[in-house]
């Protein structure tokens, strides 16, 4: 009896993954026809059978207001970072300094680590070099770092990004950790 809910959850997760892959297939083809949907479903089943994904169960809840806050701030971060990188690129005679900064995350769950790394990689001027899953540490290459104070400021920014992601998508336990841990 105890196995039944876990088995049901695994099939639900596979179904969601298959729907997501089918949707991506339809979007890549650019037409919503029965043939593209059927083809996408077949490709999704083959991909999930040949390359099985590790089971990742989402224990959190989506908080719409926090998602909007995250999205708004993320767009702002993209614009600001784009302007900063452009300024560095057009600064003649100046060689921008960079650094690889280790950022230990407060909530090192697989989903939190992945979402934080993805969001951070999309921001111009930063790139994930390595993600240490066991220790929950992101190693990030950052442009425009002049000294230790800049590195600390960047580290605090990453922890703030993680906080916003957990507030938007995290489980109640993850949200408690973020709220209780000083930045």
Q: How would you sum up this structure, described in words?
A:
With 183 residues, this protein is mainly alpha-helical. Helix content is 62%, strand content 11%. The chain is built from six helices and three strands, in the order αααβαββαα. The chain has helices at 3-29, 34-50, 64-89, 110-122, 148-169, 172-180, and strands at 98-104, 126-132, 137-143. A hairpin with a 4-residue loop joins strand 2 and strand 3.
What's the total number of strands?
A: 3
Approximate strand percentage: 5-15%
Q: Could you give the order of strands across the largest sheet?
A: 1-3-2
Order of helices and strands: HHHEHEEHH
Rounded to an integer in angstroms, the radius of gyration calculated over CA atoms is: 20 Å
Q: Kindly, what is the distance between the CA atoms of the first and last residues, rounded to a whole number of angstroms?
A: 43 Å
Overall shape: globular
What's the average pLDDT? 87
Q: Name the poorly predicted regions.
A: none
Approximate helicity band: 55-70%
Largest sheet: 3 strands, antiparallel
Category from helices, strands and their pairing: mainly alpha
How many helices? 6
Secondary-structure map with pairings?
Elements: H1 3-29, H2 34-50, H3 64-89, E1 98-104, H4 110-122, E2 126-132, E3 137-143, H5 148-169, H6 172-180
Write a concise keyword list for the protein shown above.
11% strand; mainly alpha; 3 strands; 183 residues
Question: Quick summary of this structure?
Answer:
This protein has 183 residues and is mainly α. It is built from 6 helices and 3 strands. The chain has helices at residues 3-29, 34-50, 64-89, 110-122, 148-169, 172-180, and strands at residues 98-104, 126-132, 137-143.
